[in-house]
């Protein structure tokens, strides 16, 4: 079909206990929501002639575990297992991308956004200039946190990206990718209530805007 609508809904419900002074006690009640909706329209001949809009949402928590409640999203990354990396958005730096070596280096590596929550969308437009051979893609991404950190704002960043790829045959292609991210006032904060400094080791100001350009040769063999 020319129209496609996909998505997911996830709700974390449970509790976490902590051992203090040799005794177990309630650490926090957990209740967090995450959802995603993606709409795409194929306007041309091939499956890569399409326009898509993707919306991503995750609740946040504004006081960590001080009130014995956590209303953010819990993923495998919370326990040190790679999970919750949202690589299907089409972004490269704001969210992780599937064609990079390390998928844990974007601005938002986990769906929970360090516990601050997330409201974001991406827009992608793709076209086969030569059907099934030469393809071009333009995209953008925008993200806000649901919780405003101390000293900063809610705007995480805005990204623009593009790609050109040439397919030599089934499962073999040469691709050129590029992206630029304008960081938001979220990075004015150096808060670390979720065990990670938002601004890393920086003490003042927003870090330099990150960008990437890379070439990838893909060949899937069976």
Any descriptors?
single chain; 222 residues; mainly beta; 9-stranded mixed β-sheet; 0% helix
Oligomer: single chain
Radius of gyration: 20 Å
Major sheet, described briefly? 9 strands, mixed
Number of strands: 9
Q: Tell me the number of helical segments per DSSP (H or I, 4 or more residues long).
A: 0
Low-confidence stretches: none
Mean pLDDT across residues = 90
SSE string, helix = H, strand = E? EEEEEEEEE
Query: Roughly what percent helix?
Result: under 10%
Question: How would you summarize the topology of this molecule?
Answer:
Layout: E1 3-20, E2 23-42, E3 50-58, E4 69-70, E5 118-130, E6 134-144, E7 155-169, E8 172-183, E9 211-219
Parallel strand pairs: 2-4
Antiparallel strand pairs: 1-2, 2-3, 3-5, 5-6, 6-7, 7-8, 8-9
Description:
This protein has strands spanning 3-20, 23-42, 50-58, 69-70, 118-130, 134-144, 155-169, 172-183, 211-219. The protein contains no helices and 9 strands. The chain is 0% helix and 49% strand. It is mainly beta and 222 residues long. Strands 1, 2, 3, 4, 5, 6, 7, 8 and 9 form a 9-stranded mixed beta sheet that branches. The protein is elongated.
Please summarize what this structure is:
The protein is mostly beta strands and 222 residues long.
């Amino acid at each position: 079909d020319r129209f496609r609508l996909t998505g997911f809904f996830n709700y974390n419900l449970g509790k976490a206990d902590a051992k203090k002074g040799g005794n177990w006690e309630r650490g926090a009640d957990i209740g967090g929501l995450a959802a995603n909706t993606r709409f795409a329209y194929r306007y041309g001949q091939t499956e890569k002639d399409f326009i898509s809009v993707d919306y991503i949402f995750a609740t946040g928590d504004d006081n960590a575990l001080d009130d014995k409640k956590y209303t953010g999203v819990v993923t495998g990354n919370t326990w040190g297992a790679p999970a919750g990396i949202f690589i299907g958005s089409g972004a490269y730096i704001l969210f992780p991308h599937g064609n990079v070596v390390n998928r844990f280096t974007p601005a938002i590596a986990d769906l929970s956004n360090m516990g601050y929550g997330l409201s974001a969308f991406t827009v992608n437009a793709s076209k086969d200039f030569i059907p099934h051979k030469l393809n071009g893609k333009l995209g953008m991404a925008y993200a806000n946190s649901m919780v405003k950190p101390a000293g900063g704002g809610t705007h995480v960043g805005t990204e623009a990206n593009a790609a050109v790829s040439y397919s030599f045959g089934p499962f073999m292609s040469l691709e050129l990718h590029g992206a630029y991210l304008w960081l938001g006032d979220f990075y004015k904060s150096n808060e670390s209530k979720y065990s990670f400094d938002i601004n890393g080791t920086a003490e003042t100001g927003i870090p330099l805007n990150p960008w990437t350009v890379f070439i990838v040769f893909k060949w899937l063999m069976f």
